[in-house]
Design goal:
776 residues; alpha+beta; ten-stranded antiparallel sheet; six-stranded mixed sheet; 36 strands
């Protein structure tokens, strides 16, 4: 995911002429071994992850920052950068736009430097070269060139630092001017910044940031285990405040904490944050930092992560594949992130402070355009209690927001990034899977977004009125019109479920009918998603490689996709799509063509369109379900061959190991689910289509002491195909299984083969349901 931008051809175009499905894969030895997460996977290339310390869905992500001025460093960090600016308390994992990096802390020695200096000249500012970098879930450490050993760990709402200085003087800079920069930004990016030193030595402050989430606020309260010998405050233009000053306000404020003998013993910092106010940050700190035992906090963080990661264990595969699996699960558990303070207060989507009922939580960092596809479905299996909390929060924030259902809320600000209102599919999926919530409470604002065309729009919902009146968004009226039409149709499908739950039958029927609007942007004459103009005509100079008819340089007719990828965007009415495109054999041939077309892209393609197999782009979300569509035409063996290929070629145990942005865990969740052997083509349908399990055995710990064991005896690189399936010891002829069955626990057994078994899943009665029906 990224904002609309002009780019070059993807840095990685894989397999320009895709080999035949099921081609032999690299050999590897299978032996069981415990795997540890590699937190550096995704920190190189365009993965945009960070290696620092956090807890599952934690409010604090305490991590090193290496740069703030490149798209590569949306998370603040990129593997291979030679210097570290410092350690900040908030980060985004895998996003295509940068923000956060709040409350930068820089431990160092020598003359005080107030600017970081450029990446290509670490000697020019407070940047430091580094070595001996180490990261594990909940803990990070590194050796800085100043001789300082830096260690980081966390609780949910507090960041803990331990800095061991060499003998002699040293200082710690706290820089509130630090943030992600972008050439499109307009000043001021920060205002209402402040720092204050209280009588008890606590450093407090905050700022308002106008980066991506315009106007978001962050506040902090920081305590140190050793009282500084003196504190110097700096205001705008790095103006030093008078000696003895205890407070400063401005736009770019800083503090330096001086120690005459910094090396006498380690300096510990514990820092609470809050989006509400400084009092909230103080309360978070008081509640979660009751001692100065850094190692105890580190052990607690490690135990928390061990419990979460032990929910899925695997045997077989290569050591690298087992590491990738654990690392992918780790990344899938980072977001959404906690947003409410210990007292239950949080900033709502109306930008007002609200207080939660006891026991409930608010969250931020919902990358819903990406994560409704695989991340949220994965959580319904491995963390259903967390899903119930997330769903309650999304209902509450949907009701509070003047913009209705969420799409990309960050720190109490709806950014309106990407398209659609994809909180609704997450709610409809949870409802279909029996997760209890007051879904009807979300309906009034879902109804407004669906039918009230006077409701304010951000970029994500432009053209709703034309979509309703004409059945599609015209390409000469709104950018990304083809993708809008298809994704609005999917949200209509999901919204119809919520409407019915709210007892609004007429509205549900209207939404269900309107969810067929996807047909109006797929030209059956050519079998492709095609831009269509206001007068009903199609773009005549159509080329599926292109991003659209482009009346302006930045205008696209598809969202981070081209005509090839958008053609298969429909997730909820696959059998309707098959019929619209000429029937089963025509559809199967078109899928074959997708995976075998030349992997060429136009010069203006965004970098998100990456990881190409033919014209299928695994590095971005729009067609990540496409390989599973073969099951709907009775050819699941082709799904199996392609899924195994994607699992083994698109992920590596390497910093450059994620083929595109991880997008708050979506790319990682695809790997986790697909390597287990199934995937939710349409999460709202609450079923999973079988693919090709990667391991010989996977064991999932389910609530209530239940277990789901997925066996594939003898599975290896030369056996990508499914010969037969058993469920709890009985033959299972379907190419899919329901969520309701899986979460009861049991044993799913795949018999794997080196050659396709065309008969498996071919019968009409054995094909997956779509739009509430099967072809039988």
């Amino acid at each position: 995911m990224s904002k609309p931008r002009t780019g070059t051809v993807s840095r990685r175009t894989l397999l320009a002429s895709a080999a035949a499905l099921g081609a032999p894969l690299p050999a590897f030895a299978a032996r069981p071994a415990a795997a540890k997460a590699n937190l550096f996977i995704g920190t190189g290339g365009d993965g945009h992850t960070y290696p620092g310390a956090t807890l599952p869905g934690g409010m604090v992500q305490l991590s090193p920052d290496t740069d703030v001025e490149r798209w590569d460093t949306c998370s603040g960090y990129h593997h291979g950068d030679g210097s570290i600016m410092g350690f900040s308390h908030t980060h985004l994992s895998g996003t295509g736009i940068g923000d956060m990096l709040d409350v930068l802390v820089v431990p160092t020695r020598g003359p005080v430097q107030l600017l970081p200096g450029p990446l290509n000249n670490p000697d020019a500012g407070y940047r430091q070269r580094f070595s001996a970098e180490h990261a594990e879930p909940g803990y990070y450490r590194v050796a800085l060139e100043s001789g300082v050993r830096a260690e980081l760990t966390v609780t949910e709402r507090t960041g803990w630092h331990r800095y061991t200085f060499p003998a002699g003087a040293g200082h710690i800079l706290v820089d509130l001017s630090h943030l992600i920069l972008d050439k499109s930004d307009a000043a001021p990016l920060i205002d209402e910044a402040s720092l204050a030193v209280s009588a008890d030595g606590t450093l407090t402050g905050g700022r308002r940031v106008h980066r991506w989430a315009k106007g978001r606020r962050i506040h902090f309260a920081m305590q140190l285990s050793r009282k500084p010998d003196r504190v110097t405050l700096y205001g705008d233009d790095d103006a030093e405040q008078p000696a003895g000053a205890t407070a400063v306000q401005g736009k770019r404020v800083k503090a330096v904490l001086h120690y005459d003998d910094a090396g006498a013993k380690p300096v510990l910092i514990r820092c609470g944050i809050s989006a509400v106010d400084v009092d909230g940050a103080r309360r978070n700190l008081t509640a979660e930092a009751r001692h100065w035992n850094f190692d105890s906090v580190r052990r607690d963080a490690a135990r928390t992560w061990a419990r979460e990661l032990d929910a899925v264990t695997v045997e077989g595969g290569t050591p690298d594949q087992r590491t990738i699996m654990t690392s992918a699960l780790y990344h899938a558990l980072l977001a959404p992130t906690l947003f409410s303070d210990v007292d239950g207060r949080y900033v709502g989507m109306d930008r007002q402070v609200h207080t939660l009922p006891a026991g409930e939580r608010a969250y931020s960092t919902y990358s819903l355009w990406d994560t409704y596809r695989a991340l949220h479905p994965l959580l319904t299996i491995v963390a259903p209690d967390r899903v119930q909390s997330l769903v309650a929060d999304m209902i509450r924030q949907t009701a509070e927001s003047p913009l209705g259902p969420l799409v990309w809320p960050l720190q109490g600000v709806e950014t309106g990034t990407m398209i659609g209102w994809h909180a609704v599919p997450v709610l409809a999926e949870a409802q279909a899977k029996g997760i209890k919530a007051d879904y009807a409470a979300a309906w009034p604002n879902i109804a407004k977004r669906s039918f009230d065309f006077t409701m304010r729009d951000l970029d994500n919902s432009k053209g709703r009125d034309l979509y309703d009146a004409k059945g599609y968004v015209p390409a000469d009226k709104w950018f990304e019109s083809v993708s809008r039409t298809q994704e609005y149709a999917y949200d209509d499908w999901a919204s119809s479920k919520i409407a019915r739950a709210a007892g609004r039958t007429a509205e549900a029927d209207r939404l269900l009918k309107r969810s067929g609007n996807w047909r109006n942007v797929i030209d059956p004459a050519i079998g492709f998603a095609r831009p269509r103009f206001d007068d009903g005509t199609w773009w005549k100079d159509y080329d599926p490689i292109q991003l659209g008819h482009m009346p302006k340089p930045w205008w696209r007719d598809y969202t981070e996709a081209n005509g090839w990828q958008a053609t298969f965007l429909n997730q909820h009415d696959v059998y309707g799509l098959i019929a619209h495109m000429g029937g089963e054999r025509a559809f199967e041939a078109k899928l074959d063509a997708l995976f075998n077309a030349p992997s060429t892209l136009p010069k203006n393609a965004p970098p998100d369109i990456s990881g190409l197999v033919g014209q299928y782009a695994h590095g971005n979300e729009p067609d990540q379900h496409a390989a599973y569509l073969y099951a709907y035409v009775g050819a699941p063996w082709k799904t199996q061959g392609m899924v195994r290929r994607l699992l083994t070629e698109m992920y590596k145990n390497d910093p450059d190991g994620i083929i595109g942005n991880d997008d708050c865990g979506q790319m990682s969740a695809w790997f986790v689910l697909s390597s287990l052997g199934f995937y939710p083509v349409d999460p709202v349908e609450a079923v999973y289509v079988f693919g090709s399990p990667l391991f010989e055995r996977a064991t999932l710990t389910l609530p209530g002491g239940k277990r789901l064991v997925i066996d594939a005896p003898g599975n290896g690189p030369t056996t990508p195909y499914v010969k037969s399936v058993q469920w709890n010891g009985r033959p299972w002829t379907k190419s899919w299984i329901s969520h309701a069955d899986l979460v009861k626990g049991g044993r799913l057994t795949f018999t794997m083969s080196a050659t396709p078994e065309p008969g498996f899943g071919r019968a009409l009665a054995d094909r997956p349901p779509s739009f509430g029906r099967t072809p039988a």
